Each structure stands twice: as C-alpha cells, then as structure tokens.
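Design request, tokens follow.
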C-alpha cells in the first residue's frame, strides 16, 4: 500500500503547460464582468438537500491528508479539517491541547454509507502505528473513529475487531469515541492540498475562502490535487480538465 508518496503525474505537466493559457482566459472573463462563483455547480438539485445529509468524523493523521482522502468520494458533499477528541475549549493549530487532527464529513447516506466510510478510514492509514501517523509524530495524529449513536458505535467496534483479526502481531490503536464537539480548523488548513495547486484554484475561478470551504467541487479537487482519489475518479477528473482546456472553457464547474 502506497501511503505517503506524492509523485508528479503526467497530467500535472500537461496542466502546467496550459497554465498560461488558462490565466489569460480567466483574465478575459474577469474583464467581461463574469462572476465565477455563480457558475460553480454544487450538489445536484434533488439529489442531496441538506435535510438528508449525515455527518461523520475521523482522525487518521494529518488533517490535510485526511480531508483529501474523504473529499473525493462520491456521496461526500463537504469536508472540514478540524480538531476533535479532546477537551481543550478553543484549540488552535499551534496549541491543540489533547485534541486530534480530524476531518468532518457531510455525506448523503443514499450514496455512501457509514460502513463504507469506515472501510476508507481503515484502508487510508496505518491504525497500528503508535503515537503518530506516517512521518508525523505526536498524539495529535492518533487514530479515532467518532460515532454518533449506538448503531455507529456498534459498526465501528465490529470493523475494529475485523481489523485486529487481520493484524495478529500488532495492536490496532484506534479509539472509538462519541463525538462531542468538532472544532473547525483555521482557514489556511482547509482544502490545504488544493490551495497548493494554483492551476486548479484558477480552474474553478479562484473561489473566495468561505465558498471554497463549502464547495463539493473543491472537496473533490482537494483529493485530486493530493492524488488520493480512487483511480477511476482521478482519471475522470483528468479527462474533464483536458476537455475544458481543449474547448476553451476556462472554468471547471463539476467533476
Ligand atoms: C447526531 O446525529 C443527529 C441526527 O441523527 C444530529 O442531530 C446530531 O447533531 C448529531 N450529533 C453530533 C454530535 O454530531
């Protein structure tokens, strides 16, 4: 399992070569008075209105990466990086106290289930690692499944047991906790992977921070930028981007 490497993909070099083109096209659009955010299509109407959405939260190492892992999944509508699992009242990045870096996920249970989110959780980090995750060392990177209600606690416990059966020689360190409060992290930690990719930011019209944080498209592209989408989806987004570039349509509206 390849967990922490980030290779430059061929698609990124293709994208880089179109950067100049895109910037000039976007500039032309600004001049034409088009306001980008209106053109971003969010959750398709009728599929996910907020009443049917559910919320889950997990801690599995760096929240930059965790947000990217879940943001790309079909059925995930929004992601937020934050702090949870501890008792410190106002955690901040440099003083998060006893909290763990976490991701909160709003999802449509008709498209993805809590059980499926658990599978992604287990397969996206090493739950046997003690006091850290990958290169990140410290209590803030511990592994936690946050649950809401007895059914989720049961599913979490069953999945942990199964995970423990798979790894006989070492202990699964993951904690299971009822979620109390999720504290959203500072803006600079939201969609962190996407923000490092100026080409992609440009492609969705340089959304203002608040829209970027709420955007489903940004959540997906955040996963794409980190190359953490499932391969099929990673390819689909490559295709969409190349399509847009070919057709001189500078703004990516959906993936
Ligand atoms: C638990 O789920 C219910 C809906 O089933 C929701 O109203 C409540 O806010 C959730 N609690 C937390 C802490 O997320």
């Amino acid at each position: 399992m390849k967990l922490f490497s980030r290779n430059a993909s061929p698609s990124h070099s293709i994208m880089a070569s179109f950067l100049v083109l895109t910037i000039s096209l976007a500039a032309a659009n600004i001049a034409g008075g088009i306001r980008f955010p209106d053109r971003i299509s969010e959750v398709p109407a009728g599929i996910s209105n907020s009443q049917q959405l559910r919320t889950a939260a997990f801690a599995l190492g760096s929240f930059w990466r965790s947000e990217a892992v879940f943001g790309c999944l079909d059925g995930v509508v929004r992601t937020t990086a934050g702090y949870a699992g501890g008792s410190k009242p106002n955690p901040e990045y440099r003083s998060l106290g006893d909290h763990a870096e976490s991701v909160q996920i709003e999802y449509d249970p008709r498209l993805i289930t809590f059980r499926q989110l658990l599978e992604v959780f287990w397969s996206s980090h090493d739950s046997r690692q003690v006091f850290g995750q990958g290169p990140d060392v410290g209590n803030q990177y511990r592994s936690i499944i946050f649950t809401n209600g007895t059914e989720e606690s049961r599913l979490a416990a069953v999945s942990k047991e199964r995970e423990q059966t798979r790894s006989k020689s070492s202990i699964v360190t993951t904690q299971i906790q009822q979620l109390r409060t999720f504290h959203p992290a500072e803006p600079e930690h939201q969609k962190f992977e996407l923000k490092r990719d100026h080409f992609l930011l440009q492609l969705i019209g340089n959304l203002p921070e608040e829209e970027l944080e709420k955007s489903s498209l940004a959540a997906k592209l955040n996963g794409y930028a980190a190359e953490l989408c499932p391969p099929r989806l990673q390819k689909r987004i490559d295709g969409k981007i190349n399509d847009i570039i070919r057709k001189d349509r500078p703004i990516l509206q959906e993936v």
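Comment from the thread starter after seeing the answer: thanks! DSSP finds ten helices and eight strands in the chain.
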